[in-house]
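Supplementary Data S3. Sequence and structure tokens for construct A.
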Amino acid sequence: MSQQLAFDSLVAAAATRYRPAGRKAYYFARGKLGWDPVFAAILKQGLIPDKARLIDLGCGQGVLLALLAAAQDPRHSAGWPRGLPPLPRDTVVRGVDLRADAIEAARIALGNGALVWVSDVRDVNLTECDVVAILDMMHYLDYEAQRRLLERVYTALAPGGRLILRAGDASPGVRFRFTLITDWLITLVRGHVQKRFYCRSGEQWLELLQQVGFEAEMQPMCVGTPFANVLLIGRRP
């Protein structure tokens, strides 16, 4: 099976978990997992190891957690291309988000396979873990809160643990302006007016992670989209 077919099959299985949560939750999961390149990148680069204790901060309706849940099916493991890292098995996953409706959809989709709850990431209790995912959320926090959260993440990660951070790249350009407009419209549709986003360039995000103590690297994460995003991978030595 080709890489794309294998990933599409996994996406379909993950999205199907949301059918009991309603059409909106199902189609969002199907579109987000299938269209956003970050999810394929996480799996194809083997960023989540077997038996990882993972927490997704700002998880929304938990689509990353649903993808990992679908990966536990032996049929997907058997059909996963040999040239890629194997799908992560026996992961222990948690997720938090401020939006109660999103967390309810996550609970329906994930059942007993994950612990998800409503919480502000600035206050959530972070116990020891192996992977922390923060996707498209940091620019909602002010600059000092960003640093404090990353310091808490660093402390919570076990030695060798990994931070997976996707953020907007505030380097000048049309892509970034489009990214900000889209984020503003999304918050407006959700009934909240975001007066300001706290953005950094990709290099500034990388420098911040290094200041906190991470061994960090950065890669573009906007291929096939109109957005200006980067993926930062931080490792606690």
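Construct B, processed identically:
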Amino acid sequence: MIKVLIVDDQKLLAEGIQSVIEVSEDIKVIGLAYDGFQAIESIQKNQPDVVLLDIRMPNMNGVVATKEIKSKFPQVKVIILTTFDDSDYILNAINYGASGYLLKDIGGTALIDAIKNAYKGDTILPVKIAKKITDAAMMVSSDKEIKLKKAFLFSDREVEIALMLFEGFTNRQISSALHLSEGTARNYISTIYVKIESENRTDAIAKMDAVLKK
């Protein structure tokens, strides 16, 4: 049984989402919360597996709440569920560890499937949202590209992935945004580490930062 917490400042909407997803015999809603602070309290008390989290809420919005939830309860999967498709929200929430991002016009069956997939560890991104992430990843400074290519002799794809690493994307987020398998993404990242002469992400980011500051 997948335990789900719904967090939305609109009580009627939260209750509506509850009625939709509890159609599934595999999902149980263990609570409703109406802002980020209540969400964190409920997670501590009820230990859900998946949190459906609205973005725009009073007191603590969904992006900040995602950061707090993932830092305190890293095992909990967070799915951002909202009417907004602003790319800044998308990138921030995903970078803070959200498992995915869904728009509230999603159908009931698709929402249930998304919860089950997130629970299994998949990244949940509708096509148009994945495109926004890809576009954002592509909108990197040409100056940064030139500096990294010159310093480390990166290929075009390597510099693209290196910059995403630098911005804090996880391997899974990189593979999803660039439509690569996770294995392919890991191979690129391993090559990047070799070229930078680093053994881990922290050291690689530090060396890229030193180059980009020149």
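Residues 182-196 form the longest helix (15 residues). Residues 100 and 130 are 10 Å apart (CA to CA).
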